[in-house]
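New to this. Help decode the following:
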Amino acid sequence: MRLNGKVAIITGASRGIGEATAKKFALEGAKLALVDLKKEDLAHTLKMIRDLGGESIAIEADVTDRQNVEKIMEETVAQYGHIDIVVNNAGITNDAKLVKMTEQQWDSVINVNLKGVFNVAQEAAKVMIEQKSGVILNASSVVGLYGNFGQTNYAAAKWGVNGMTKSWAKELGRYGIRVNAIAPGFISTPMVDKMPEKVKEMMKSKSVLNCMGEPEDIANGYAFLASDEARYITGTILSIDGGTVI
């Protein structure tokens, strides 16, 4: 098991990519701290992990709130003694064209997808610097590399995540901490599954493989980057997109 004995925090762990990553990490032997806005939303993921024989706790927290983020670190260290991996997965969308985007739409996405990533990474880094080891993994997007119609706020946040990832890799490498990000393409999540069939067909056509990815495809990428197999990889934005941006 590639993550045997490692302690991993996963934000946005109640569904989609976060849930799939929690399952993958548990199968690889990691002990988990699952984070989402409401504990009850984590009940399914928590049960799944425990049914697999894994060890996990659930933490109710808002990543945009600094005190909440401090609580994530405190509860994880209190339970497990250390933090080896953080997966900054929590994120939202709130789409509109530039001329119609409201200040609330802009602020909500920037707060969760950019400030939230900063908050969690900053507090985790304080623990990891003391340990002189750790892995921080951030959720980017192909939209953060190439932009997308109607997603000014989301693109801005994900471009920011890419910049922070590379900056943190340079700052934290001396402490034995690696920082990477994954840029997913179109992934079949519960949110996407509710979209009209026409939109889903368009998404499929963007991939040279003519299909959407599954949450497990991203989870596999996170598991690799979190493991010692990736010990010499840092500052990388790994695209997992089925060739969408070739």
